[in-house]
Design brief:
Number of strands: 3
Number of helices: 5
Order of helices and strands: HHEHEHEH
Strand order of the largest sheet: 1-2-3
Largest sheet: 3 strands, parallel
Strand content: 5-15%
Helix content: 40-55%
Length: about 150
């Protein structure tokens, strides 16, 4: 059996993205918990757990924004941007232009809608593409990793 193609992965997210949304919220990454991992279960309601997950995801995005230090006029490529919640926040808080790339058509639509609602569609954009086929990304992957590639284009 061969590895799935970018098209296969995109179709998977198009088909099952709603299920991921039920378990991961509208940010497709985990998060950063400031108090460590809770060892006991059952002490929070489902709504409280959802709020905790959202805070942890937002904490992770905030740390990324601080670490990268983008400035207005700079550009960033978000590889595997999902539905774009972190992508839009990065653009809003930094003033930079951000391009989110995903293999999922449904995620592109969600990201574009999110950027439009935030009034940022002039500098936060989303495209459906195989990020590994983009010029220079394959070389960057070796040294930077998967989630976000900072590129001053």
């Amino acid at each position: 059996m061969s590895d799935p193609s970018a098209r296969d992965v995109g179709e998977w997210y198009d088909r099952f993205g709603g299920l991921y949304g039920l378990t991961m919220g509208d940010s497709m990454h985990l998060g950063m918990w400031s108090g460590g991992v809770r060892t006991q279960t059952g002490e929070l309601t489902a709504d409280e757990m959802w709020e905790e997950l959202t805070r942890a995801q937002d904490s992770w995005t905030g740390s990324l924004i601080n670490e990268v230090g983008l400035l207005p006029g700079q550009q960033m490529l978000d590889v595997g941007c999902g539905t774009g919640r972190p992508t839009v926040r990065i653009g809003a808080e930094s003033g930079a232009s951000v391009l989110g790339v995903t293999v999922s058509a449904a995620q592109v639509r969600a990201g574009r809608d999110r950027a439009l609602k935030a009034g940022l569609s002039d500098r936060v954009a989303f495209e459906q593409a195989d990020a590994m086929a983009l010029p220079g990304v394959r070389d960057l992957r070796r040294s930077v990793g998967h989630r976000v590639v900072r590129a001053l284009l």
